[in-house]
Amino acid sequence: MTRFIERHPAWALIVIIAVAVALWLIFAVWPPGLEEAVGRKRVFLNAVFNGITLGGLYFLVASGFTLIFGLMRNVNLAHGSLYLFGGYVGYAISASTGSWVLSFIVAFVLTALVGVLLQVLVFRRMEGQDLRQTMVTIGLSIVFADLMLWACGGDFYQIQTPNWLIGPIELPLLTAVKSSGEPVYLRYPLVRLVIFLASVAIGIAMWLALNRTRIGMIIRAGVDDRDILAATGVRIQVVFVLVFALGAGLAGIAGVVGGTFQSLSPGEDIRFLLASLVVVIVGGMGSIPGAALGALIIGLAEQLGSVYIPTYAIVVTFLIMVLVLALRPQGLLARR
Amino acid sequence: MSVTHDVSVQVHRPASTVERPAARGWPDINNPAAWIVAAILLIMPLIANGFFLIEIFATTLILGTVALSLMFLAGYGGMVSLMQLSIAGFCAYMVAVFGVSGNANISLGWPWWLAVPMALTLAVMFGTLGGALAVRTEGIYTIMITLAIGAAFYYFTNQNWAIFNGHTGINNVSTPRFWGVDWRADIPFYYVVLATAGLCYFAVDYISRAPFGLALQGVRDNPRRMSALGFNVNAHRVAAYAVASFIAGLAGVLQVWNYRQISPGSVSVGACIDILIIAVVGGITRPVGPYIGALVFVLLRTFALDFLVKIGLDGNRFRLLIGLGFLAIVFWSSDGVIGLWQRWRQSQLGEANRQGGGRGHG
């Protein structure tokens, strides 16, 4: 952090000012002039919170994607299919047993199993031929999409939110002050906050696992140079399978999350594949903190965009990607 | 970086060894099969009825031309671009926007000979800009970035009503009519498509042997060495994108004339990936590959439904069939149908040579 400030004082200043403005916008009571110009603060805060929680969901999808890419150099374009598969599994479990938590566990385990099968049966056979692997994942995503359409039909599914998470809670954030002087606080759906906190927890756990444990050390070494790592006697194939299982499982969990606060239907696989592509391009391929930052930026841009410039929301996301590619092609937080 | 290039070298080596003897002159001129195919294509209107002529052969040639632009980038430039269909779609939209269509509030009503060059220019600009972005990265990153560009274009056309008319698209696009000929009538249109596709095919064939194409293939095989030799690697790549965008744009013009309408559905992400499938199934080492792939794809798309129903399966599963076929090709033959055929012929030749005591290929 300090090195970043020393090396790029101008950028650091811009970032600090932007963060300060954002914090002021979130915490201060807006003066009337601003409300007239931009709209109600409640709308803005809702968009910001939607953006952050959507960013949490994107992070869940993209972190698995970026982890798999970082270690195996395999662009898994079937990642969106794993997301949708996890969502359908979660829906089936929650509809039949009524347990939301159980649906997470089953979705994680089943998608992780699919991931293991993919790694063992497909990707291990064509190691090092990344172009061919990418083509195979495209073929797989077509096959999976059609199989899921076959099994589940074209309907929309939504996973039932459990009772203890239904309803809004009041956050200690002022949206306005009534004329009587009574403060109005922001009300926000509890389930989205819980999901966001869970994704933050998963992110921190992944960071700790990667940076503080032995298996994390092996994975990081594999990202840097897998040939040398294999030469030191690590059973790299086992590590590959584990990482693929973890990445796929995370996509499955994300599917359940997405099925809870959005909906599941054919086509969502491509949407989330695209989202994770943009997120990792912005954040930097193979970097977990990059995926977190990218997910936050893209989630916020999408939600704020859809509130303030509804016609061009998707273009904003795209422009961010173009800007990052033009200024820093390797992504914001990737190492050169 | 290096990994990707090793791969592309590996993939293309068989092609370059096969093509090298024919590197001078037109490679197809001594091939009787090529003459037969050309003759059949020319007299097609005598053989086929309107449905086959337009729905099968014209569509094949149009899709094949889009895939040809991808083949040009992937085969000679080593850049797998998934946005070629978006460029074609953009050009199609521009023809509809500048030309005459049923949506009078959007279309500017220019005559076709003004609207088409304008659309092509814009499409080349769009493709070149996208290419300039994509060449900042290498190999598999290119796939991702071009896929993201294609998807962004799809969502944009869905959301924008001022130019692209949202998800309904632009309908009743008028087609050219001059010299007393309705060029959208089945037979004239078939010849227009055939001429365009032939032009693109021979242009790509020519460029691949021209200095620019040779430099491009050098850039594909070893960019470092090429830049050490004084070639501007990125400029060659961006120029390749410009050429490919022009080809894709031509196909886009034909596409909008064929269907007389254009909507976001025809530039969807799935359709972009279909182009990749076509090119890979046909084979990305030779310009003829995309057309073979397109023929296979169009035949499957048209007849798989009836065929599946006939053998007692669900007719809606044709995408499954295409996906599985694509997987099989990628698994067993990295250079597509052409590769299979070449290998089969080489084994035949090898046997003949061995029997005749000639030089065997080992």
From TrEMBL, chain A:
InterPro entries: ABC_transp_permease, BCAA_transport_permease. This is Branched-chain amino acid ABC transporter permease. One of its GO terms (cellular component) is plasma membrane. It comes from the Bacteria. GO terms for molecular function: transmembrane transporter activity. Keywords: Amino-acid transport, Cell membrane, Membrane, Transmembrane, Transmembrane helix, Transport. The keyword Plastid does not apply. PANTHER family: ABC TRANSPORTER ATP-BINDING PROTEIN, BRANCHED-CHAIN AMINO ACID TRANSPORT SYSTEM PERMEASE PROTEIN LIVH. The chain crosses the membrane at residues 12-31, 43-69, 76-94, 100-123, 135-157, 190-210, 238-261, 273-300, 307-327. GO terms for biological process: amino acid transport. It holds the Pfam family BPD_transp_2. It is a multi-pass membrane protein. Belongs to the binding-protein-dependent transport system permease family. LivHM subfamily. It is found in: Cell membrane.
Automatic annotation (TrEMBL), chain B:
One of its GO terms (molecular function) is branched-chain amino acid transmembrane transporter activity. It is a multi-pass membrane protein. Keywords: Cell membrane, Membrane, Transmembrane, Transmembrane helix. It is found in: Cell membrane. Coiled coil: none annotated. GO terms for cellular component: plasma membrane. It comes from the Bacteria. It holds the Pfam family BPD_transp_2. The chain crosses the membrane at residues 33-52, 57-76, 82-100, 112-133, 139-157, 187-204, 238-259, 266-285, 291-309, 321-341. This is Branched-chain amino acid ABC transporter permease. The lineage of its organism: Bacteria, Pseudomonadati, Pseudomonadota, Alphaproteobacteria, Hyphomicrobiales.
